[in-house]
Design goal:
110 residues, alpha/beta, 5-stranded mixed sheet, globular
Length: 110
């Protein structure tokens, strides 16, 4: 099942305030069930992460890691991934391991 992108600021804010979250050194994940019937993801990379090149790399790494886990999602969720400074320094495999652990704890994947 292909996921859609979260784009609206109100959706991001709703997740920041109401969703469950788990943090690790290179990724913060917010997840909450939705009634849309599909999974929607958003990726946030703040200015602290670095210039445009670093932020784009962080987004690319997070997107690639999520693509590996996308088939295992059970149900429909809104998920926001927040990149951290360390995200730009690590390989995709490390982000994937963190993401998998976080999504398991949040009950998004089995």
């Amino acid at each position: 099942m292909k996921s859609r992108a979260l784009k609206e600021n109100k959706d991001f804010r709703r997740l920041y305030y109401r969703a469950k979250s788990i943090a690790s050194p290179c990724l913060v994940t917010y997840a909450m069930k939705n009634r849309a019937g599909e999974t929607r993801i958003g990726i946030t990379t703040g200015k602290k992460i670095g210039g445009a090149v670093q932020r784009n790399r962080a987004r690319r790494v997070i997107r690639a890691a999520f693509a590996e886990l996308e088939g295992r999602i059970c149900g429909s969720f809104d998920i926001v991934f927040v990149a951290r400074t360390k995200t730009t320094e690590v390989k995709m495999q490390e982000v994937l391991a963190d993401m998998e652990k976080q999504l398991l704890q949040l009950g998004v994947i089995r």
